Amino acid sequence: MSTETGDGADPSLDDATAVREQVEALEERLSTVESRTESGDGSRKMTIIATKGSLDMAYPPLILASTAAAFDWDVTVFATFWGLDVLHEEHSKNLKLSAVGNPTMSVPNLVAALPGMDAMATRMMARKIDENGTASVEELVELSLDTGVELQACQMTMELMDYDEDDLYDGVTTGVGAATALEGMADADIQLLV
Amino acid sequence: MSVEFDVTETLDVTGLNCPLPVVKTKGAIDEVEAGGVLEVTATDPGSVSDIDGWASSTAGVELLDQVETEEDGETVYRHYVRRDE
After folding, report:
1. Under a CB-based contact definition with an 8 Å cutoff, are residues A172 and A141 in contact?
2. Please, what is the end-to-end C-alpha distance for chain A in angstroms?
């Protein structure tokens, strides 16, 4: 009997070990990918970058954020530039609407540019919001904070606008920058720039 | 049309608009004990689609029924949401 067994090891056994190791490595990678796409309990993650501070544009980020929180999503709103006024306790109650360059206004731009027209447009919208049972910006900010939305204020803009942490609503996260925003966006299922 | 559920909690969101009916429903259902039924009364026509969408993608809640009635010349929407045991 002179069967060739080499050094005595069964080659098919080596193959099986190699395959098992490969499967284990792949399973580990899969679980890493899964943990990135689902934030633990299977819920989604959304990051909104809010850059606008007009009365009309304050709404979309806040409505989406508070609704997503009701879905048990992990939500972050990173407010930068004029978006910061939405988190500013005083300014958020006096956001304005521009009559100029707004094609839904029935007045021509030349007329809309006259003094007092922005104030009139703002008053009209504020009245509609009130009559319609739509929440105020202040209510939506409070609601978002109450339901666990992470509201972040861009540090660079805070300094640019000379805002103090005390000017913002209690519960707003400060001391964050673009890197924090990017990190949140990279982890999120949904990223929006408003 | 009458709907009979063992309603354990009620929530009135009449006069409120998007996103308040859904957000307040979520807040209220968290307070309902397991197996309990929350009756949400709304006047926002969007609440029909919104509460349906919210319930179908939120774990632990089940939308039992949605009923539309005319009351004092106003359309009222009642949503029955059950909290899973």
Report:
1. no
2. 80
Q: Point out the residue among A42, A43, A66 whose CB comes nearest to the CB of B23.
A: A66
**Buried/exposed code over A161-171 (b: 16+ C-beta within 10 A; e: otherwise):** eebeeebbbee
Identify the pLDDT of residue B4: 77
3-state SS class at A175: strand
In this prediction the ipTM stands at 0.79
Cα-trace Rg, chain A: 27
CB atoms within 10 A of CB A84: 24
Chain B hits for A147, CB-CB cut-off 8 Å, are 23, 26-27
Q: Which two tokens stand for residue A153?
A: 């204020």
How many other C-beta atoms can be found within 10 angstroms of the C-beta atom of residue A76?
A: 24
Long-range CB pairs of A184-187, under 8 A, 24+ apart, other chains included: A184/A47, A184/A76, A184/A78, A185/A47, A185/A49, A187/A36, A187/A39, A187/A45, A187/A47
The secondary element (H helix, E strand) that includes residue A110 is: helix A109-112
| B43 or A102: which leads in pLDDT | B43
Instruction: Report chain B residues touching chain A, CB-CB < 8 A.
Output: 15-20, 22-23, 25-27, 43-44, 54, 57-59
Q: Residue A75 has which token pair?
A: 């939500």
Which amino acids of B are annotated catalytic?
A: 18
Rounded distance between C-alpha atoms, residue A82 and residue A79, angstroms: 8
Using a CB-CB cut-off of 8 Å, the residues of chain A touching B63 are none
- Please, which residues have CB within 8 angstroms of residue B8's CB and are 6 or more apart in sequence? B32, B33, B36, B37, B38
- B14-54 tens-digit pLDDT: 999 989 999 999 999 999 999 999 999 999 999 999 999 89
